[in-house]
Amino acid sequence: MNTPLTNWHRTHKQSLSRGDRAADKVRNGMGSWAFAFCFVGILVAWALLNTIDTFRHWDEFPFILLNLFLSMLAALQGSILLIAAKRADGISAAMAQHDYDTNLEAKKEVEQLVELNQKQIRLIEELTRELKTRR
Length: 135
Hints:
By secondary structure, this protein is mostly helical. It is 80% helix and 0% strand. The longest helix is centred in the last third of the chain and has 71 residues, at 64-134.
């Protein structure tokens, strides 16, 4: 019962569609410190460029255009988070099934080993009895 060892994660990644891979990259990018710091930097730059007198103001205080963009971003992020959660659930379910299948195979192998061990014990007992009768 020698089956080649496979890396479940590698096999799963190869089976992903282009959209799934893109969703993973977007989720991983938006969930990083680099994204958070970049985003804060953009917000600060937006506010500074629209409040300093030397620049032309395209979105004066109270930054209504920025507020609109942030609202749209929040709506988009909500959808992305739901998609990511759905994908994570799917991955968890697939991994659980893989673990279950692996455990079933291991159980069969252990049962075979126990059976073999019991046969060996019976043979040893028979040999021991045979040796005792010959003495």
